[in-house]
């Protein structure tokens, strides 16, 4: 049975709620990994994993525990690359699949944008997380669960 791993510190509350409902409905374990305590409902399927607040502590814990066939939900591209290297599937909290075929281009674009910002260029931030993003994430998660439920 696959496990859901959530890089919960940066995951929008709406996406966490979708993950909680999906874990309960499908009886798949979802680990919410964070540097702080998250408000989570009591659940057999949704488990908190609080780690120290050190740099990349949550990322390191996820990489250590994730297994081939699991799903990681994150927007952290270096973490996504490590999870992909371990044979896990990766999806952003907007429902975008990160794969061995597209991750390097995404990392290069992120690095390019960081270089622009460091030079004083205003590049803007990510667009808001609204109804469209919630729906796309919920649909992508449901499709992944339907394909990967043991």
Automatic annotation (TrEMBL):
Organism superkingdom: Bacteria
Membrane spanning residue stretches: none
PANTHER family xrefs: UPF0178 PROTEIN YAII
Similarity comment: Belongs to the UPF0178 family.
HAMAP family (alphabetical): UPF0178
Protein name as annotated: UPF0178 protein ACFOEI_08085
Organism: Modicisalibacter luteus
Top-level taxonomy: Bacteria, Pseudomonadati, Pseudomonadota, Gammaproteobacteria, Oceanospirillales
């Amino acid at each position: 049975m696959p496990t859901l791993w959530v890089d919960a510190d940066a995951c929008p509350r709406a996406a966490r709620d979708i993950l909680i409902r999906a874990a309960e409905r499908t009886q798949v374990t979802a680990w919410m990994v964070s540097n702080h305590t998250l408000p989570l409902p009591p659940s057999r399927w949704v488990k908190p994993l609080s780690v120290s607040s050190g740099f990349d502590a949550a990322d390191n814990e996820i990489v250590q525990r994730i297994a081939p066939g699991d799903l990681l939900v994150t927007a952290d591209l270096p973490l996504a690359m490590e999870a992909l290297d371990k044979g896990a599937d990766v999806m952003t909290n907007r429902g975008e699949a990160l794969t061995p075929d597209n991750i390097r281009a995404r990392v290069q674009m992120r690095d390019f944008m960081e270089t622009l910002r460091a030079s004083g260029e205003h590049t803007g931030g990510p667009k808001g997380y609204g109804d469209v993003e919630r729906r796309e994430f919920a649909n992508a998660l449901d499709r992944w669960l339907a394909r990967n439920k043991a």
